[in-house]
Amino acid sequence: MAQAAGLRSIDIPADADGPAIHGMIWYPCAETPGEIHAGAFILPGVKDCPLAGDHLPLIAASHGQGGTFFVNHDTAETLADNGFIVAAINHPGDTARDLSRSSGDLSVFVERPTDIKRLIDFMISASPFAAKIGQDRIGFFGYSRGGYTGLVLLGANPDWAGAATSYCRQSQLPLCKEILGGKYPSQPLTHDPRIKAAVLVDPLVIFFSAESLAPLKAPVQLWASEHGGYGVLLHDIAAADANLPVAHDYRVVSNAGHMAFFLCPPALVEARSELCVDAPGFDRAAFHAEFNADVLAFFRKWLVRPAE
Question: How far is C-alpha 81 from the geometric centre of its chain's CA atoms?
């Protein structure tokens, strides 16, 4: 039975692996939802509601370039209403209030997977809900650069000298300057085998070759928008689909642009209308109802039923 979504903010302390990280948890609670005002967003839920349930699946969530943990709040609410704990963070240096390394700095692509590993570590050990999380039921949700983040966590290693360099010879993306200059990362990136299933939404996949994706073993639900945008294009995701070595669920959303996966609050429709305009005939609200149901069904399949 669906329940109200509880909301609780979290702060992960700085440590040797990175700076302090701010985040939000959506989770099941048995109280009647009210309205929580958070900047441009009005969220249905109950702040700091007691957690309802035990051995619950955990979904770690990663936003896109310059986004926030609120971007996919409606998906988090759907999952929380149906028995999942969803923990989302603001990636330092690549979030709405801190764009210091968002544009042309490849260091964020090294640190993003580490951010999520630190989030999972925190959730299962130090968070208020640690004892209630099923550590064999950990999933991941990532949108845009968050999708890149998920691929790395699942075992992929970017092919900086090959696929990324080849792409950048024909691109004006700011981050390509470092890549073409050979200043791409040399250190190993963070993988996390605790993640048992992942939803990757319009992911940035330009750094990956077929060899990059070969280590993946966990089931994936892969989404692509027909029109793309913001450096994400359908033909790149289609190539990743063809190269994924695991059986997976691939969905192309007809007539959708990259921002279709973000449900704009009314305040943002006025302030940043370019983020909220769709192609004629595309109903973003109706799509989100279907999208959230499909994401829920995927995570139920891989994180709930096997453990029952």
Answer: 19
Residue 142 tokens, joined: 């990532």
Structure tokens at 31: 């109280």
Across 191-268, the runs of DSSP E, i.e. the strands, are 195-201, 220-225, 248-253
pLDDT tens, position by position, 87-96: 999 999 999 8
Q: At which residue do the structure tokens 């992911």 appear? A: 203
Q: Alpha-carbon distance 214 to 210, whole Å?
A: 6
pTM over 0.85: yes
CA neighbor of 261 nearest in space, from 221, 291, 240: 291
How are strands ordered across the β-sheet holding 220-225? 34-38, 41-47, 4-12, 21-29, 85-89, 56-62, 133-143, 195-201, 220-225, 248-253
- The first and second tokens of residue 108, run together, are 């964020």
Number of other residues whose CB lies within 10 A of the CB of residue 46: 19
Token pair for 231: 């450096």
Q: Which residue has the tokens 């704009």?
A: 264
